[in-house]
Design brief:
Layout lengths: L1 E4 L1 E4 L2 E8 L14 H30 L1 H13 L3 H14 L3 H17 L4 H20 L14 E5 L4 H4 L7 E6 L7 H8 L4 E3 L13 E5 L4 E4 L3 H21 L16 E6 L2 H9 L4 E6 L13 H14 L4 E5 L27 H6 L1 H14 L5 E5 L5 H21 L9 E5 L2 H5 L1 H4 L5 E4 L1 H8 L18 H17 L3 E3 L10 H7 L3 E4 L4 H9 L2
Parallel strand pairs: 3-4, 4-5, 5-6, 9-10, 9-16, 10-11, 11-12, 12-13, 13-14, 14-15, 15-16
Antiparallel strand pairs: 1-8, 2-6, 3-7, 7-8
Helix pairs in contact: 1-2, 1-5, 2-5, 3-4, 4-5, 9-10, 10-12, 12-13
The structure holds phosphoenolpyruvate (PEP) and magnesium ion.
Length: 538
C-alpha cells in the first residue's frame, strides 16, 4: 500500500481504480487548410463505426434478443442523421478544424441538446449520442488505451484539471478526483465540491501515472489517498464511508427547517450550481433558492455560441426545477481560466486582470443580447434574478441597464412573451466594487459577494497559482472588512446582500457573517444541510 498526503477538497470517501487523465481521450483543436482530407477521414470513420455497430447488433440479437439489441440500430441511424453527422461535417467545413475536434465538439452539442429535452425517454438518448461520439473518436485514432475502464466507476487522476475538463465529469463514472497539483480555490475544485465528488489535490511528486489502473481509496476528510490499500485500511475506509452516509441521513432531518441561529438570527441558505444535475441536487438538499448559477459552465465545451433557444430551454428548466424559489442566474463570466472555443480570445499577459466577465460581454454585445433575451423569455417560468460578474464601476451598471432596456424593447416589438420586471444584481468581487458599494447600491437590486475573486484581487493572490496556497488565509481580515463595509452599505440602501464565493460555506465564519447582517449564503448543494446544522447550533 502507498499512502500519499494532499489537501482535502470535498469531504467524502471515494473508491475505485485510478484512471490518469493523460490516458483519457483529450481532443486537440487543430486548424486545417485541407478540409477535404478531414472530411474524408470522417467518412472513413463513419464506415468503420457502421460496420462495428452492425457486428454488435448481430452479436447482441443472439445474446439478448432483438428488442435489447435495437440500441445499436438506433446508434447506426445517428451516423446518417443530419443534426448529428451533418453538424460535424459542417463544423469541419465552416471552422476548418480537424475531424476529431468536430466530432467531440459537435457530438457533445447534440448530446447536450438532448439533455434538455423534457421527455425522459428522449433525454436518455444523450447516452447513445455520447457512445457514438466515442466510437467515432476511437475510429479516428484518438481513443486512449485506458478508455475501456471508463465504463466502470473510477477515480480520476491528473496533474491538474481545467474547468472545461471538470464540467465533463458529471456525465461520467467518476467516483473521486486525485490531483498531483491543483489549487483548492480553482474552478475545478469548486466543481468537484459542487458535484459532491470526493476529491484531494496537491498530492505532489509522489503521485504519478505509474499508478494508472491501480485500486485506490480517496479519503476526502483528511486529504489522503491510499493506493493498493491493505485489507485493514479498506475496512476502515468502508466503515468511514458508512458513517459519512449515516451522517447524511441524519442531516436530511433538517430538510424543511428554517436556518435560524441559537441567538435568533435568520439567514437564507441557497445553492451554487453550474448544470441541471446540480440544480436538482439543490432542490433535493432543500436549498432556499439558487444563489448563483454559473451559466458559462454549461458552454465551456461548445463548438459554437449557444443560440437563444438553446439557452432559453436551459434557463426555463432551471426555473421550473426550483418551483418558484428565488433563482439567480449569472450572465456569462468568460475569460481568465474559463475560455470557450467559440470566442477566440487573444492571449493576455494577465488574464485574471483582463477581458473577463462584464468586460467581455460589453465587448461582444451580440452574445450579451442573446443571453439577456433568453433570460427574459425564460423569466416567466419562475422567480428569476439576473446577476452580473466582475463589476468595477457605476458606468458598467448604466451600460447594462441600457442593454436591458434595448432587449426588452426588442421583445416588445416582436410581441414575444417575457418577464419584464427581473431584479438585477451585481457581483461584489473586486475591491473597487466593495469600496464603491454605497453608490452601486443606489442603482442595483441586490449584491452577491464573490469571495473567490474578491480574495484574489484584494490579496493579489492568483487563484490558479497552486504555489501561493501557503500564503492563503481564508477569511483574511482585509477581505472580511470589505464584506462588512459592503453589507453596511447594502443595509443602508435597503437591498439584500448574499455571499456566493467559497467563504460562504466556511462554518468558522458563519457567526461573523450573521453579525454583519448578510441575508443569504450560497454554497454547493451538498453543503446546505451541514451548514444549516452548524448555524442552528450557534
Ligand atoms: C467568486 O469569485 O467568488 C465567484 C462566486 O465567482 P467564480 O468563482 O465563478 O469566479
Ligand atoms: Mg468570480
Amino acid at each position: 500500500m502507498v499512502t500519499i498526503q494532499g489537501k482535502s477538497v470535498y469531504r467524502d470517501i471515494g473508491m475505485g481504480k485510478l484512471c490518469f487523465l493523460e490516458n483519457r481521450r483529450s481532443v486537440e483543436c487543430r486548424w486545417t487548410e485541407d478540409v477535404e482530407k478531414e472530411l474524408a477521414r470522417f467518412e472513413e470513420a463513419v464506415d468503420t463505426v457502421t460496420k462495428r455497430l452492425r457486428q454488435l447488433y448481430e452479436g447482441s440479437v443472439r445474446a439478448v434478443g432483438e428488442t435489447n439489441a435495437s440500441v445499436f440500430r438506433v446508434q447506426e441511424l445517428l451516423l446518417q442523421d443530419r443534426e448529428y453527422a451533418g453538424a460535424i461535417r459542417q463544423m469541419v467545413s465552416d471552422q476548418k478544424v480537424n475531424a476529431e475536434y468536430a466530432v467531440a465538439a459537435a457530438g457533445e452539442n447534440a448530446a447536450r441538446a438532448l439533455d434538455l429535452v423534457e421527455d425522459a425517454y428522449i433525454r436518455e438518448r444523450a447516452g447513445d449520442v455520447r457512445d457514438v461520439t466515442n466510437l467515432l473518436l476511437e475510429a479516428l485514432g484518438s481513443a486512449p488505451d485506458g478508455l475501456e475502464m471508463l465504463q466502470e466507476p473510477y477515480l480520476l487522476a491528473a496533474e491538474d484539471l481545467l474547468p472545461s475538463q471538470a464540467v465533463q465529469l458529471s456525465a461520467g463514472n467518476v467516483r473521486g478526483i486525485a490531483l498531483k497539483g491543483g489549487s483548492t480555490r480553482s474552478h475545478a475544485a469548486i466543481l468537484a465540491r459542487s458535484m459532491g465528488i470526493p476529491a484531494v489535490m496537491k498530492l505532489g511528486e509522489a503521485f504519478g501515472s505509474e499508478f494508472h489502473g491501480k485500486q485506490a481509496v480517496i479519503d476526502g476528510f483528511t486529504g489522503t489517498i491510499y493506493i493498493d490499500p491493505d485489507q485493514k485500511t479498506l475496512e476502515a475506509m468502508e466503515e468511514k464511508k458508512r458513517e459519512a452516509d449515516r451522517h447524511k441521513v441524519l442531516l436530511r432531518r433538517l430538510k424543511g427547517r428554517e436556518t435560524v441561529s441559537g441567538t435568533g438570527r435568520r439567514i437564507r441558505l441557497c445553492a451554487n450550481a453550474g448544470n441541471l444535475a446540480e440544480v436538482e441536487a439543490a432542490w433535493d438538499n432543500d436549498a432556499e433558492g439558487i444563489g448563483l448559477f454559473r451559466s458559462e459552465l454549461m458552454y465551456l465545451e461548445c463548438g459554437r455560441m449557444p443560440d437563444e433557444d438553446t439557452q432559453f430551454a436551459l434557463y426555463r428548466r432551471i426555473l421550473e426545477t426550483m418551483r418558484g424559489r428565488e433563482t439567480v442566474i449569472r450572465t456569462f463570466d468568460i475569460g481568465a481560466d474559463k475560455q470557450v472555443p467559440w470566442l477566440k480570445q487573444e492571449k493576455e499577459e494577465n488574464p485574471a486582470l483582463g477581458m473577463r466577465g462584464i468586460r467581455l460581454l460589453r465587448e461582444n454585445p451580440q452574445m450579451f443580447r442573446v443571453q439577456l433575451r433568453a433570460l427574459y423569455r425564460a423569466g416567466v417560468a419562475g422567480n428569476l434574478r439576473i446577476l452580473y460578474p466582475m463589476i468595477t464601476s457605476l458606468e458598467e451598471i448604466r451600460s447594462i441597464r441600457q442593454m436591458e432596456r434595448q432587449v426588452r424593447q426588442e421583445l416588445d416589438r416582436e410581441g414575444v412573451r417575457y418577464r419584464d420586471k427581473v431584479p438585477a444584481g451585481i457581483m461584489i468581487e473586486t475591491p473597487a466594487a466593495a469600496l464603491l458599494s454605497d453608490r452601486l447600491a443606489q442603482e442595483t437590486d441586490f449584491f452577491s459577494v464573490g469571495t473567490n475573486d474578491l480574495t484574489q484581487y484584494t490579496l493579489a493572490l492568483d487563484r490558479q497559482n497552486a504555489k501561493l496556497e501557503s500564503l492563503e488565509d481564508p477569511g483574511h481580515e482585509a477581505v472580511l472588512r470589505l464584506i462588512e463595509m459592503t453589507a453596511k452599505n447594502a443595509g443602508n440602501a435597503g437591498i439584500p446582500i448574499a455571499i456566493c464565493g467559497d467563504l460562504a460555506a466556511d462554518a468558522s465564519l458563519s457567526e461573523r457573517f450573521l453579525s454583519m447582517g448578510i441575508d443569504a449564503l450560497s454554497v454547493p448543494p451538498g453543503m446546505i444541510l451541514e451548514l444549516r446544522e452548524t448555524i442552528r447550533e450557534l
